[in-house]
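Support case: zinc ion complex. Customer-provided input:
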Amino acid sequence: MIIQVAVPGPFLTPLDYLYDLTEGPKPVLGGRVRIPFRNKERIGLVMNLPEQSDYDPKKIKTVIDVLDAEPLFNQTHLKFIEWAAQYYHEPIGEVVQAALPKKLRAGEAVEVEGLPAWKLSASGKKVTPNDLPKNAKHQIALYNLLKQASEPLSVSQLNGQLESWRASLKKFIEAGWIDEHRGLCLADTYLGEAPNHTLNDEQQHAVDAVASLPDKTFKAFLVEGVTGSGKTEVYLGMIEQAIKQGKQALVLVPEIGLTPQMVSRFNAFLQKPIATLHSGMNDSERLCAWHLVRTGQVSVLLGTRSAIFAPFKNLGLCIIDEEHDLSFKQQEGFRYSARDLMIRRAFDLKIPVVLGSATPSLETLHNAKAGRYGYLQLKLRAANAQMPSIKLLDIRGEKVQEGVTAPLKNAMQKHLEAGGQVLLFLNRRGFAPVLMCHDCGWQAQCPSCDANMTLHQAAFPSSADTLRCHHCGHQAFAPQACPSCECTEFVKIGQGTERLTETVTEWFPKHRVVRIDRDTTRLKGKMKELTDLARSGEADILIGTQMLAKGHHFPNVTLVGLIDIDQGLFGADFRAPERMAQLVLQVAGRAGRGEKAGEVLIQTHHPDHPMLRTLVSQGYDQFAIEALKERKLASLPPFKYQIMLRAEAHLAQDARHFLSELKQALLQMQSEQGADSNGLEIWGPVSAPMERRQGRYRYQLLIQSAQRSQLHKLWNQVEPYVYSSPLARKVRWSIDVDPQEMN
Ligand code: ADP
Ligand code: ZN
Ligand code: ZN
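Agent response - structure generated as follows:
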C-alpha cells in the first residue's frame, strides 16, 4: 500500500511512502504517521491514498508507525489545506504544521483528559485566614481566591489573577485542603449574567440577512459598523441563530490578549462556555480547545489568526472582527491571510462568512461596493451613544510642551474636571526615539539594523537606562559618555509613551495615569489588570500605543488626543494612507461610547493634507472612495494582484543577484507564454525600505497583474527552478502572495 504524506520541509507536494498491510493499524487519510527521513524520524499527515506510485518501489521507504486510527481532518478540510498550499505557494508540509497544535506535531495523542483545576475540599473550607502564616502574602491571596470561587480554578485562571501561587497550592494540597478536578479546560468558565439587549433595527437587519440565507449557501457579508455600533452584539445574534440549527461558529479577532472582555461577553451572552485559541495559552490548553471544537463539545471558537485551521465537527458560520487588521496576515514563514482563507473555507463548506469593521480594508470595501459581498451597514452607535466630534489641531507655530499643545492640555483639564477620562494615543513606546550627543551629534544606532535605538528609562532608580532596537530586539545600556567625542551630555529627542506618561503625571498629580503598551503589558494578566483599571474608571488618564486602539470599550472616555500622526501621512508603502485612516478612526472611536459626548483632537503639522481633511470632515466612506480612485489610477490593488519575492543575505550582492536571476527566469517564461502574458509587470529588484535588518541586506521583487491566474501560473512554472537553484542556498528567500506590507 502506498500513502502520500505531507512532511515538514521544502517539498511542494506530499512524499510517497510504503505501508506494510499485514500488521498493526492502517494509516487513514487525514491521520498522522511517523516516517523515516534522512536518518531521522518525522511526523507527517496522510494526504492521499493513491493506487500506485510514480517512483521506483525499491526506493520508497516504509512507514514506521501509525499515530491516528481516526482522521484529524476530514476530506473537505484536507482539500482546504491543499488549496492554501497551492494559493500561497507554500510547501504542503509547512501548511500542515501551521494547521496542527504543537503537541500533535510532536506526536502526542489527540485525546485529552482535560486540565487540572482546584477548589477547596470540605476540610479546606473550615480553614480560616488565621490558620495561615501571618506574612504568607501569596498563601492568603490564593486562599481568598479559592474561597470566593464558585467553580474549580484552572492554571490560566490562577495565572490571570495571582502573581505566584504554585508553591502555596502545593502546601494546601499537602494539608488536604484541596480537591483536584479534571475539567474540559475551557479558558474561563465563569459565565456571568446574560445581558438584556434588544437589537436595534440596523443590528436586527444584519442578523436577519445572514440567518435568512438558505441552507448550504456560501455568501460573504461586510458588516460596516461605526465604532460603538454594537458589532459584537450583531455577531452574537448571528451565532445564536447558528447554534439553534445545531451548528458551530468560528470567530477570528486580532488579539484576544488585548480585549480580555470579549471572551466574557461571549460567555455571558451564550450562557455556555466558548473555546479560545490564542498566543496567551499553553500547548495543553491549545490542544484541549482544538479537541473540544473538533469533537463538537463547544459551539464557538474565538481565536486569533491561526485558529483558521482548526477542524470543526459542524461549522456553520464564520466571522472575522476588525477584518482590516494587519495581524490577520502572517508576516513570516507561511504568509497566509486568515481573512482570505476564511472566505475560502466558507466557500468550501457552503456557509456564510461575515467580515466586520468600522474601517474596512479597501479590498473588502471594493468587493462590497461591486456587489460581490452583501453590504450591511450600521450607521448609528448603539444604546444612544453619539459619534464623537473630531478636530484637527494645527501644531505649527503652537507652543508645544513635551509634544502636547496648549489647546490639548486645556481640553484634558476640562474633561478631567467634568469627571471624564482622557486617552492619549502615541504610537511609539519607550522614552525617546533618538539619543544624540550634545556636542558632536552622534546618534545611538543599532549595530545590526539601519535604524536608531530607542531610549528606554530604567525601571528602578538604581538601574541604568537602556537603548533598544525595536526592529531586532538588540539591547544595550545607554552610554555614560559619547562613544565618538567622550562628551557626557546627551539630548533625548522626540516623544515616546514613557516620556509622555512622566510629563502628564507631573501636570495632573491628582489623577491616576495608566500607560498601556507592549512594555507595561508583557507579563501575563497585566493587560487585563490595566484595561480593568481603565474600564472601571480608577485610571483617569490612559496613555498608549495602538494596543489601545483596538476594540476596547471604555464608556467614560470623553476625550481622545492623538499626539503625533504625521509619520503615517507620508509612508513609502502605498497602503500608508489607508492604514493611517483606519488607525485614526479606531483610536477616535474610543471617545464618547457611553452617555457623555466625546471629543477627539488630532495634532498635526499638516492640517491641509487632503486625505486627512476628507477623513475628518466627511468620514471613512468618502475617504475610501477617493483612495480607491487613486488606487485605480495608479494600477494598484485591489485593481491589480501582486506577489512579492523577498531575499535577504549577509552580502547585499547575494540577495540582489538571486532576485535578478529570478527576474530573468520570469521574463523568459513570460516571453514563452507570448500574448498570454500581456499586462504582466515585474518591478525590481530594489532594496527594502530598511535595507539592513538584523545584519542582513534585504531586497525585493514585485510581480503584478490584473489577472490573478496569470500571476500564479507564471510562478508555478518558475518555482521548481527556484527550489533547485544553487543561489537560493546563499540567501533567505520568501514568497508573499497578496503582500500587505511593502517592507
Ligand atoms: P463595536 O464593536 O461596534 O465598537 P460594541 O459591540 O463594543 O461596539 O458595542 C458598544 C456598546 O454598546 C457595548 O457596551 C454593547 O454592550 C452596547 N450595545 C450594543 N448593542 C446594544 C443594544 N442593541 N442595546 C443596548 N446596548 C447595546
Ligand atoms: Zn559626541
Ligand atoms: Zn536592530
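The pocket of zinc ion (ligand 2) is lined by residues 437, 439-440, 442, 482, 484-485, 487 (CB under 6 Å).

Case will auto-close in a few days if no follow-up is received.
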